[in-house]
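agent: user wants the structure for Purine-binding protein BAB2_0673 from Syntrophaceticus schinkii. delegating to structure tool.
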Amino acid sequence: MFSLRKSAVLIIALVMVLTFGLMGCGSDSDTDDSDKLKVGFVFVGPAGDHGWSYTHDQGRKYLEEELPYVKTTTLESVSDNDAEKAITQLVEQGNKIIFTTSFGFMDPTISVAEKYPDVTFMHCSGYKTAGNAGNYFGRIYQPRYLSGLAAGKMTKTNVIGYVAAFPIPEVVRGINAFTLGVREVNPDAVVKVVWTQTWLDPPKEKDAAKSLLEQNADVIAQHQDSPGPLQAAEEKGVYSIGYNCDMSKFAPKGYLTSPVWNWGPYYVDVVKSVKEGTWKSEAYWGSMADQVVDLAAMSSLVPDDVKKLVEDKKGKITSGEWDVFTGPIKDQKGNIKVPEGKKMSDEEMLGFDWFVEGVEGTIDN
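agent: tool returned. relaying tokens verbatim.
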């Protein structure tokens, strides 16, 4: 009997230790989290895509490092159809600021914002706003133009391939900026476009690049989230230009540079303004001067004179002396669309539905 009683006491004591121990751990964690400002992120792809979602996740990490009072939550690989459900889930989890990071999330963001007026929403790359919802993007066309300068100087066949995602103004604008850079230094070069109708599909995007290589392209550029196009170029032994971040590790023998994103400082500014009560709904379109967009370091394959050319043009852009879509600019048929000396308005650039001279491809694919 004594042995049984002793065993029972020991078991009860052990249960009490484990229970209180677990309660203590949970309590500490809950206390820490309850003191923090919860910020949610919705990604269209995985954070490890080495592309678009990766850059936003790097910005999220930067946010937590710079603002210790912030606790972030991410939902990855969310489709447009599931976006409203995902955004609502983040709200119900207590997130007070939510960043939705894909063009297709625009309408779902506005819809959820109307239901939760006490939460701040920021949508990336769209154009709609509400009292508690703003939008943000960067003038990635600026570094795309600079990368076009490098491509135009490096091509020998005068055929440059461009693997493009969807025929929307954002992507069209990037192709046009890139082509203007190419043609400024090489009027004989053309930019051939292939649409994939994907943001992230490495095999399909790699195959699209291969089709361009078969058309004698010796430089491959892209508006895709995977390094597939670069890998196709690397296997063929030709030059490549990445996108989103420095993709040099995927094509070490042929990589030239990449137009890149730097979201971290912007995320910090937004969260600070919400916390301090100074946030206002706006449509933010940051430039190279803001450093939200930039051109990655050019590789050793790029000659010094080309690097200097690119740096000189970058200086004119960041100083505000000049911008990419300043006339004269012709369309594919040779018609003047932007007269000499005139600069396209933001509204015109945001609604791009035509290609500049030098692009081979159509927009209605």
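agent: one observation worth passing along. Confidence is low (pLDDT under 50) at residues 1-31.
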